[in-house]
Amino acid sequence: MSTYERIADLPLTIDDYALEGLSKSVSSGFERHTTVFRLTGGGEEGLGEDVTYDAEDQQAQQAHGPQLPLAGDWTIRSFSEHVGGLDTFPARGPQMPVYRNYRRWGLESAALDLALRQAGRSLADVLGREPRPVTFVVSSRMGEPPTLDPVTRRLAAYPDLRFKLDGTPDWSDELIAGLVDTGAVDSIDFKGAYKGTVVDVETDPAFYAKIAETFPDAWLEDPDLDDEDAREALRPHEDRITWDAPIHSVDDILARLVLPKTVNLKPSRFGSIEALFAGYDFCEERGMGAYGGGQYELGVGRGQIQYLAAIFHPDAPNDIAPAGYDALDPEPGLPASPLDPQIDATGFRRRT
What we know:
Blueprint: E1 11-14, E2 16-25, E3 31-41, E4 44-50, H1 55-64, E5 72-75, H2 76-84, H3 99-119, H4 123-127, E6 138-140, H5 149-157, E7 163-166, H6 173-182, E8 185-189, H7 205-214, E9 219-221, H8 228-234, E10 241-242, H9 250-254, E11 262-264, H10 267-270, H11 273-286, E12 289-291, H12 300-312
Helix pairs in contact: 2-3, 7-8
């Protein structure tokens, strides 16, 4: 039985739903907006979070209100099929096509939470998986101009932190040497798979080679291998190449120029629970590693991706640090890695 088949026929009753807008000024210089879906039925409430990045898309949804036809008696499978046929952006078309996946994940994760609560069971129980403490890393850019501060200031407060860093060609030799001295870098994200976004990074084959050679144990995420020189620069290091932004399905994993030994499975990128769980099954069947990544969730969504990491890939360099580590000077008392799963007795949520 596939992982999805274990939950696909869970009964689900939805009476109504509501939207809750969340916002926060974040360290990378923008106002983050998300929307929490609150599905109600049978005296229970299920929560999920739409992590669409465009603020106007989020605000339009919230102003439009809970107008989608979600009420009824479903199973997880039939609800997913129903949502897949809806225009979930009725107020305005999404700024990027992948946002439809993000919104679908918010709706389906809320439905899964609700169905499990109505059944009086937890996701871990239904899947027959034991939650384990979750290893996490802190992701960060290095500033403009780049300095060691994003790493050293966090390490001053939490000396055992590990990092996934956005590597850019303007890193100086001194900066790179300083990062090596920390011994805290697990992954470098080249952002080479992004095109036409605010996080695009110039493809620099010489920089790729320098980073791969200087950090011989680090994962090398999302290099631009469409560039022939970049491909050649990383050819000796292909066993450490991993993917994030292009991965929305198993087919996307298979389509990479380099088949990875481990891959970033972001639930919101997959959109449907069925597609995500197929990704987990594929990795297990192939002996391929997996790790989780976040999308700057502000609400329940963060706990849900931590929950998934706890039952599918707890020992990986999961880019799902608890809220608070995004600050350059994180406050005392934040949860340390590995993170206690702390799952609710029923549903698809961590205790808060």
